[in-house]
């Protein structure tokens, strides 16, 4: 059992280092810490290692959109707001019932108004990447 814990911990450290280097490290580090804490609660030391890897990978994938995308979304007339029961937060998916409007200059992003808040979304996964105030 000890050997499995050491192997898992080593793999977690190696994988989290690689994931953290894929972006500026801020989102990956935050994801790694949150994932490790959640994993430790649910699965002890092994869960912490696995949670750190998953959290770093997901955190590193959610990079904020470029400033020109945020400016574009802020300047567009607001589409009708859609009310959803779940909270709107970065990293959480938007329900399929919400219609996304693509950003013409950068099709890797789309936006919508959900619960009276503008959100920028990665359209392939429908994941919120930024909530615009």
From TrEMBL:
InterPro entries: DUF1236. It comes from the Bacteria. Keywords: Signal. Residues 1-20 form the signal peptide. This is DUF1236 domain-containing protein.
């Amino acid at each position: 059992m000890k050997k499995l814990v050491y192997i898992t911990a080593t793999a977690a450290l190696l994988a989290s280092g690689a994931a953290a280097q894929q972006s500026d490290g801020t989102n990956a580090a935050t994801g790694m810490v949150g994932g490790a804490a959640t994993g430790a609660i649910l699965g002890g030391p092994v869960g912490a290692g696995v949670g750190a890897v998953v959290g770093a990978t997901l955190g590193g994938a959610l990079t904020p959109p470029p400033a020109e995308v945020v400016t574009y979304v802020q300047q567009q007339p607001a589409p009708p707001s859609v009310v959803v029961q779940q909270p709107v937060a970065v990293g959480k998916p938007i329900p399929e019932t919400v219609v996304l409007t693509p950003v013409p200059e950068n099709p890797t992003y789309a936006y919508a108004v959900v619960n009276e808040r503008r959100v920028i979304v990665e359209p392939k996964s429908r994941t919120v990447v930024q909530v615009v105030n």
